[in-house]
Each structure stands twice: as structure tokens, then as C-alpha cells.
Design a protein that fits this description.
alpha/beta, seven-stranded parallel beta sheet, two-stranded antiparallel sheet, 9 strands, 10% strand, globular, Peptidase S8/S53 domain-containing protein
Length: 422
């Protein structure tokens, strides 16, 4: 339906001409302006507020209890992939690598060699095959689990092997002597990655030497930046400090993060964190049964980082331990604490200094920029020509329209007089 004709408003001809020119410009100029790309979503959305209802995996058992009651088997099965695997883009990562050929030494509460999704790829030394707490087996699933009948719950490097070592007593309490012996055993076994999923409050000379020997042997050492927060009291009452072996030179110190990227409110304060990885609402299996648990904390983040190191070592076998660590930090998602991006760590092409090619930090070499001044001037002349041409056409059309309307109303040129009466 055509709109009704508008009555004359007495607008000056110059104003109408300017309106016509502006309309022509609005139709022409946007063609010469490049469109802006839509922003890319860098992080997938987390699960809904309700999440998955699964039993929790403890980080340790009650040290005050007279009898040791191991974590019971879970009777629940996870119904969907959790946010952490979506965040790390593991489905796409596994099309590039599964970590095959890499051995990860996991120093934790032990690992059950027959656990779902781990059978045939776990070697447990000493008492490490007895995982009463269950956390070590839970972490092993995040590093190298296949997910069993649920492939979308696979770990970061489902083709890697696990060397299980005890760094705690049977209740999950860290022991410096056990951690030191475990690091040395991992070095002797020529593990490619050593994941220390515990944190000690005091520096230990023997542990310092053991870590230095492991790094000299070519292993990438990944360690929890802090212990888990206390179950009683407030973490705010604990001053910031360095924990070990995360504080040793060359060790990749890892902290946990929530789906939004922030550290938990109760997290213990520390400095020198190299990476943050998912550490809340994470799904994995345990040492008893085929059910799933929900776990979280710094040890969970450390396991994810260790799996990422295994994926990088499998994809870049020629890279030194220091180069692997640099690759993980250089490709991390930028934030107050760089956030682990394992897919980028595996696939990004790095420069000699370890920075992503094409990144802002790689502007040391002069860049030849094509001279587009001639093209810009030609484009400007073309736009001006179109504008002037459009204005001229509009002026002629307006003049013709005005003369036609004036004649229809009996308009005569000035000085022509009036017709004789009578």
C-alpha cells in the first residue's frame, strides 16, 4: 500500500537538495566500508545451574577417624559431558592426538590399574595400586581415561600410559619423603611427564634435588600450586606463601578455576602460578565400580594440565621440556592467570621465541605493508563522482517536477503580464 501524499511544507529547495544528496550518500558510502567480523566466542558455555547429581570425590579421608573407611563405589552414571571437557575442546583435540606413546607419572593417592577406561595402561609401583581415597584414580581418568562406554568423558590424552606413585599415606595426607621418592622413581622410569598432585608447605632439600634431576632427565614437572583449602576455618586467615614442589625452578605451577575463569573464593593465596585449569564440577571415575563422581580442586586442575603436556609431547616429540612448558603458557587464554587451552597448545605454530606466529609480541621484524594510497584515492574519486552525479540527477528531476507543477497552477515567467480582460 502506497503512503498518502504529503502536503507541501514550504521547505527551501536547498534543503530538499541537501536531503537528496544525503540519501544518495547513505546508499553509496557503505559499499566502500569493509564489514566488521562478528566477535568469536572463545569459551563454551558451562552446564546449567543444576549440573549433574553425582557423589563427590574426596581429596582425603578423615585423619582423625580410628578406622579407615575407603570411598565407596558410585552407583550413578554421568548423563552428559561436563563443562570442563567442553572448555578444553577435547572432542576436537582427540582428532589431532590422544597422547599415544607418552608416559605420565601421577603422584597422588594411588591408581587402581583395573579402573574403568584405564585397564592395560596403568603401572602401579609399591602400594600405589591401593587407592583407598579414590582421588588418584579420579585424576588418572582426567589425564588418560578413555571414558569406557562414554567416550565423551575421556581424559585429555586417552592414549597415554599412567605410572601410579604414592605421594600420600593411605588416607590421602601428603608426605614429603613419599613425594621425593616418587619423583625419583618417575625419573628412573623415564616418565615424560611428572604430575605432582599434592603441595607441601615447606621446602625440602631432598625434593629440590629430585625435581632438578627429573628436569635434567627431560621430564616436564607439573605441580599443584597450593594444597586444597581447609575443610574447617577460613582460607582468608592463611597468608600468601609458596608451596612445593610448585615453587621449584622450571616446575609448571597450576591452580584451579571455576567455569567463569575465576579462582574459587576459598582458594589459598599464592604467587607464581603459571596456568589455571578447570577445577570444579568435573566428572570422572573411581577405583571401585563403574560409576562416576564429581570432583574439584587444585589436584583436578593439575591433572588436566598434565594431560595437556602429554598431548603436546605426543604431537611435538622433538620439543624439550622447557619448550613444552613455554608452548602451554604462550598459547593459554589471556587472563589474570593464563587459562589452559590444550587445543591451541597442540595446534598453534610458534615462533622461535615461543610466541604464536602473527601475535602482537612477534612484531620485532619489519613488516612490509602494501601501499594502497593510489587505490584509496581512486576509490575516493569514484565515490565523489557518484555523489555529484546523483546530486545532479536529483536536481534535474526536482527542477522538472517543480516546473510541471507550477505550470499546472497557471504560473507565468516574471514580466509576461496578464491577459487582456474583455
Amino acid at each position: 500500500m502506497r503512503p498518502p501524499a504529503r502536503r507541501a511544507t514550504g521547505r527551501p529547495r536547498a534543503g530538499r537538495l541537501l536531503y537528496g544528496v544525503s540519501l544518495a550518500a547513505a546508499l553509496v558510502v557503505p559499499v566502500a566500508v569493509p564489514a566488521q567480523a562478528a566477535p568469536v566466542t572463545l569459551t563454551p558455555a558451562a552446564d546449567g545451574a543444576k549440573g549433574q547429581e553425582l557423589p563427590g570425590m574426596p581429596t582425603a579421608l578423615d585423619a582423625r577417624a580410628e578406622a579407615v573407611a575407603c570411598t565407596p563405589a558410585s552407583k550413578e552414571q554421568a548423563k552428559k559431558q561436563d563443562w570442563s571437557r567442553q572448555r578444553l575442546d577435547l572432542d576436537r583435540l582427540h582428532r589431532h592426538t590422544t597422547g599415544s606413546g607418552v608416559t605420565v607419572a601421577l603422584i597422588s593417592t594411588g591408581v587402581d590399574p583395573g579402573a574403568e577406561g584405564l585397564d592395560g595402561r596403568v603401572t602401579a609401583q609399591g602400594q600405589a595400586a591401593d587407592d583407598c581415597v579414590g582421588q588418584g584414580t579420579f585424576l588418572a581418568g582426567l589425564i588418560a581415561g578413555t571414558g569406557g562406554p562414554t567416550p565423551r568423558l575421556a581424559g585429555v590424552a586417552p592414549g597415554a600410559k599412567i605410572l601410579a606413585l604414592r605421594g600420600t599415606d593411605r588416607r590421602g595426607q601428603p608426605d614429603p619423603a613419599l613425594v621425593t621418592a616418587a619423583v625419583r622413581a618417575a625419573t628412573t622410569a623415564e616418565a615424560d611427564v611428572i604430575a605432582v598432585a599434592v603441595a607441601l608447605p615447606r621446602k625440602d632439600t631432598a625434593l629440590t634435588r629430585a625435581v632438578a634431576e627429573a628436569r635434567k632427565a627431560g621430564a616436564v614437572v607439573v605441580a599443584s600450586a597450593t594444597p586444597e583449602p581447609p575443610s574447617r576455618g577460613s582460607a582468608d586467615e592463611i597468608p600468601s606463601r609458596t608451596y612445593w614442589p610448585a615453587g621449584e625452578p622450571g616446575v609448571l605451577a597450576v591452580a584451579d578455576m571455576l567455569p567463569a575463569g575465576a579462582r574459587p573464593d576459598a582458594a589459598l593465596p599464592t604467587e607464581g602460578i603459571d596456568l589455571a585449569a578447570p577445577g570444579a564440577g568435573v566428572v570422572s571415575g573411581g577405583p571401585r565400580g563403574k560409576g562416576h563422581y564429581l570432583g574439584g580442586g587444585v589436584a583436578v586442575a593439575t591433572a588436566y594440565a598434565a594431560g595437556a603436556v602429554a598431548a603436546v609431547r605426543a604431537t611435538h616429540p622433538e620439543a624439550t621440556a622447557d619448550a613444552v612448558a613455554r608452548r602451554l603458557t604462550a598459547t593459554a587464554y589471556p587472563a589474570d592467570i593464563p587459562q589452559l587451552d590444550v587445543y591451541a597448545a597442540v595446534t598453534t605454530v610458534l615462533g622461535d621465541a615461543g610466541a604464536p606466529v602473527g601475535g602482537a609480541e612477534r612484531a620485532a621484524e619489519p613488516v612490509a605493508v602494501r601501499d594502497t594510497s593510489d587505490t584509496d584515492r581512486a576509490t575516493g574519486r569514484a565515490v565523489l563522482f557518484v555523489l555529484l552525479g546523483s546530486a545532479g540527477v536529483l536536481s534535474l528531476l526536482w527542477a522538472g517536477f517543480a516546473v510541471t507543477r507550477a505550470r499546472a497552477r497557471g504560473w507565468r515567467p516574471a514580466g509576461a503580464g496578464t491577459p487582456d480582460q474583455g
